[in-house]
Amino acid sequence: MSMNETPSANRTHIAFFGRRNAGKSSLVNAVTGQNLAVVSEVKGTTTDPVYKAMELLPLGPVVIIDTPGIDDEGNLGELRVNKARQVLNKTDVAVLVLDGKLPCPALAPEKELLDIFEAKKIPYITVLNKCDAPNTKVEDGVMPVSAKTGENINLLKEKIAALAAGEEPKQRLVADLIRPLDLVVLVIPIDKAAPKGRLILPQQQMIRDILEAGGITVCVRETELRQTLEKIGQKPALVITDSQVFAQVSAEVPQDVPLTSFSILFARFKGFLETAVRGAAAIDSLHDGDKILICEGCTHHRQCDDIGTVKIPRLVKSHSKTEPEFCFCSGGDFPLDLSPYKLVIHCGACMLNEREMQYRRESAQKQNIPFTNYGTTIAHIHGILERSTAMFRFD
Fold first, then answer.
1. Are residues 19 and 105 in the same domain?
2. Predicted TM-score of the model (pTM)
């Protein structure tokens, strides 16, 4: 991803759903003005969700998602349908595509989708594609469109933009916690896990949000933190640290200076900080053999001392004085059944949008499984969770 691009997690996710051969891919191509999706008369051409980050006027940065047909058949077809269903967990705006060549489409799969849209509170629009076909009948509340002739494509884009604009304003990362000209110190370790020649996405986003709020940012390694605090000659309004050096930073930052971590701020940004704070307490009641699920929102290359697969398990075992069993998932994979686990520890989720994190949090909540994240876990283990969340209000 270029540093000038809007991260995928911060883009509106627009997904197209419907039966095989309803023209979803053709409609996606017409809306985007690109040959994004493969088009064929053969049913089931789209076998996996296709994602495209782009600018969609008049809305702005979006992710367009073309999904497999929801009426696919057979064992392989069932897997494709499940892939389409998983997209629902990250969809901000849905487009339900009906086939205008069907004289009176039966609405069994479509009705199920509409029920899911309502249950998940996903704003949606229903369109009748191939409206240029002979004897097409358009039902009330359905927009006639044609990917072939371009009829109502611009109107569809306007409707999608209006639905997306109607969503509640997004939580800020940190800008609402500071004032113009406030000094914010970011503690960024440069170790084996740090990418060569660049900052990672959470650090980039934090700097940008501080700048937009008119704040002043000082970036420093943990090894130079003490000298930096002495040299700047004033107390920072806030110190934000990488969670991996939480203990050291907490010892060096005066108690009257607010301190938190990138991971904790991202938990707030994604809407699950209070859940994460409560969930961290489950670490104190673990037993030998308890299963803990550690989730990464991305699929980055693992380093020898990786935080998710090495550091977090080591800290948890040392703190709890137990030998739990650690299980791992990454990217879009997230188990439907969480009952085998005593605890879910998630990453900061900078690569996942708020809807997907809401789904994951709610899945754990419905199954009574504690849910937390890396930053709150590390802060809890080091006894500084209360300090690092003191600036936030919980209901």
1. yes
2. 0.82
